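Bug #77: duplicate submission created two jobs. Keeping one. Sequence:
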Amino acid sequence: MSGWGRSYRYVGPAELRAALCPGDGGRRVGSAADFDGWIVEQSTAELTEPFTFVVGTDGVLRLAPRRSEHVACAGGDMVLSAGEISFVHEADRWAVSEVSNQSTGYCPDVSSWAEVARALDAVELRRPSGFTHEVVFRRCPDCQEHTIVREDDFVCVFCGSDLPAEWNVDPTA
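Kept job's structure:
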């Protein structure tokens, strides 16, 4: 995986991973043609909501309906990033209107943006310069709960302990 950033393993509820079936996984979108084929299959209603996405360890974007679990979109595999993404059609082409790293199953660091940008560039989609909504995930060193840092307040909402400044969600990473 030379040239790729950190990879993230699934750290969410075990029952969601256990429920995966062979063939589960988001649609692999590795080129502009792949995206064009995928987007025409989406209904107008689906396009009004964000989609679930992951960037696989191969650097390729995978997309699934919003209510899909990230672990299902990834087929249970490790990822380079995960979150939610929205698209808008403007000036005869598709672009990314919003994108976040909001995935409580993988809890990717905001630094995973570089992998998302690379995957979107491969699909030739215009995109923002970073996540439009950044989610800061941490694991509490005292109670071990996964938590979201809000308003730069690095304090565990479960036990009140201080949270580390650096990403630490997966102790094996």
